[in-house]
Structures are given as C-alpha cells and as structure tokens.
Amino acid sequence: MPSFEPETNEHQELSIELPVRFVHELSAAVSLFDLLKTVARWSQSVFLAHRASITLVESDTHLKLIAMEGKEAIPMDQLLPIEGTMAGRVFLNRQAEYMADFSMTRDLDCMQLYETGLKCCLDVPLISGNQCFGTMNVAHEDTNAFTLRDRLRMQAMAHWLAACIRIHHQVEEVMALSETDPLTGVFNRRAFSSRFASIAKRWQSEEVSLGVALIDLDHFKVVNDTYGHEAGDKVLVQVGELLAKSCRKTDLIARMGGEEFCVIMVDVNENGIMAMLNRFLDTLSKMSVSFGDTHISVTASVGALLIDGAPRDLDFLIGQADRAMYRAKNAGRNRIEFTHIY
Question: Cα–Cα distance between 180 and 188 in angstroms, integer?
C-alpha cells in the first residue's frame, strides 16, 4: 500500500468544487437513503472514478453496502465482513487507506472489485464526533489513479456526510421519543393520527381492505385501585409487548389513552383479523403479571372492523370500533365484536 506524502497547511486548505446541480439534488433528498445515493453518484463524478460506494455499519461484524454508483462489483445491500476487508479495516482503524494496485492485496472487497476490471481504490471512514458510521469508497480502472489531494478532499466530504448521518440519527431519536408512548413503547395517539394519514393514501390508491381493532382492558380500574398504579403500569407494558408480538410488523399499534389500544391493519381479510385477535386474547388470558407477591391477570374486550368500501376518515373508524367494543363489554367482556363495512 503506497504512502501519501505528509499533510501540509497547503494540503489542509484544499477545497472541493461541487456542481450547483449536486447541491440542488442534496436539498431535494427526503431521506438519508436519498442523500447517500446522491453523494455516491456525484462522488463518482467529482473524483473521476469508475465506481463510488458508501457502506454503513450493520453489526459488530459486518458493514452493509447502502449506496453505489458505477460498476456493480458488489451487490447492493450485501453484508460486508469487517474482518478481512479493506473497508472493514478502514472502519475499525478510522483511517483512510489507498490500495493503488488490487493485484497486490488479498482483501475480499478489493478482490471483488478487481474481478470486474477495477484496479485501485481509495477508502475513507465516515467519522463525526466520536462515532464512525461506515466508509466511503471510490475505485478506478487504472492502477495508482488517486492522489493525496483526492484523499484529503474525499475525507473532507466524508466528514460532512458523517455529520449529516449523525444529525439524521439524532432527528430520528427525537421523532421516536415524540411519537412513542413512554410507558408501553408503542405509538402514542398523536403519532397514530399522523401515521394513519400515510396508511389512508395506500388504502385509497391500492383499494385494499383495512382492518381496525380497538382493544380495552376489562375492569382495569379494579387493578389500579387494588394493586396501585405501579402495578397497573406493569400490566400495560406487558399488554403492549404482547400486542407487538401478535401483530404483523406492518401493522400500526398505538395506545390511545388509559387502558385502550388500537391496531390498524392494511390488506387483511376477516379470517386474518379474527385469527390475530383471538390469538392475542387467548395469550392475554393466560398471561400473569408478577407484582411483589401478587400475580395479576387481565382480559380485554375488542371492537373489530373490516372496511372493504370507500375510504373513511379516522374519526369514523374509531367511532365504529368503539361502538363494537362496547357491544363486546355488554355481551360479557373478554370477547370480540366484529363489523364488516362495505
């Protein structure tokens, strides 16, 4: 691996000239993935490379190829082992590396690039603060195609990109906190309403069925009055966990307030809704929540809807589900009342 000449003040003051179109595309990016794709595409142009890619850390043992432009030497979304790869070494050591001639290395990622006609690459870490988020790579079909100037410019771009990634993660964390019920970990009512707006668009455009289930714990006031609110909170936490296990990953689960939960399911039928809810009620009836020397059991009443007709607004759906849920209460509790709306 060739060594670059030492950095000087002259090197440190190098600038990166970015096309105005690149800046416009960055401002139009609506997600982190869009941002990474844009940076990869323009990195290929800025560094006159035949391939540009970005990996992000996936686990303690692997990086994941997230964005790529140019030769598809490594499949998108492929997990790249940290051990035995140049990208993994750059990530671990947090130092840029330049492999001027792939015929001189046995690194797995370099060998994969070599097999497609690429002959050298420059890899830099994505560092912001005390975190390394992954790596940024450019490759060329000629040997020894990159210079110290390229490394300095690319490292500067990588620092900027890493700062964007860090800010994105921080925004996601803040949004998650604002949307999450702090006790149970499911969505809160405000987030439920905003997320439903996205679901409604799919419901309308794809003309799929929509399922709604309003779940209310039976005699929950007795639990709080008898064992205290700390015990009641523990019950709610376990009910939230049980709901998450019972539903599909694509289902929207929220705590609407108190002991009431709601689930929205897209593209379901009556059998699917009833199977999920019966499974939930059966497991709930067998669940025992330990609190001190006491074991607390609860049941729930459920109002369930399946809507096959024209899309309706959220207030209408919740109102219909609420009426069905009260029918379940009046019929003896610990049961499901189902309504099919055409």
Answer: 5
